[in-house]
Amino acid sequence: MKFHGRMDESILVCVYYGPNGERLIRRGHKIATMLDCPLYVLNISRQSREEFDSSQEADLLHWQNLAVEFEIDDLILKTNEDRPIQQVIAEVCNDLNITQVIIGQTAQSRWEEITKGSFINQLLKALPFVDIHVVSVDRQIHVEDHLYEKAIRAYLVDDEGVYRIYFDLPDKFICEGLFYKELSTDFDNGRFKFMYKGKTYEIEVDDGYIHDERIIKELNM
């Protein structure tokens, strides 16, 4: 576990599936870095892990990569939850001595109630000594987000000196990451985002192949 200069503060970021999770995590990381305190990320789902679809698995993988990159103390997954969301958040806060919670103002499906004042009021009542940051995430969405399909899991493979991505798990691969396919194309064109030796990379993919000589050289591939 990462050593922190102070333990009287700790931050919990609540994320749901979709484009805003990374933004909330980055906001939490920025605050935790300034305070030099522990940072946790929480995801709550009414589904079991076995019921996750490919897009949910891709989001989860992305969060795991961010957790490594930002040295997050723990990524907490609460599955098969039928309790009210605010109750689960309050339980985690009490268990980890959380002092600040970060949530998104807008919601995705099951977190729709977060946008209502009643949810915030209930959370404030459950956590009277916790500061709650409600982040507006819609205004932070960039145009580029609308140029790509939902991210899916992919694998970077060395195919006899030619580097390409596979979507089915191969016998051998260099690394695992997320592929963002361009809209309105039948080819596997887009961006591949992955972590390699502790560093995050994002490279262009042309019909499934990687041609960026600079990145290839940097990765010693």
UniProtKB/TrEMBL annotation:
Q: Which UniProt keywords apply?
A: Kinase, Transferase
Q: Which GO terms describe its molecular function?
A: kinase activity
Gene3D superfamilies reported in the protein's UniProt record: HUPs (3.40.50.620)
Alphabetical list of InterPro entries matching this protein: Histidine_kinase_KdpD, Rossmann-like_a/b/a_fold
What are the transmembrane regions?
none
Q: Which domain of life is it from?
A: Bacteria
Protein name, per record = Histidine kinase
Q: What is the lineage of its organism?
A: Bacteria, Bacillati, Bacillota, Bacilli, Bacillales
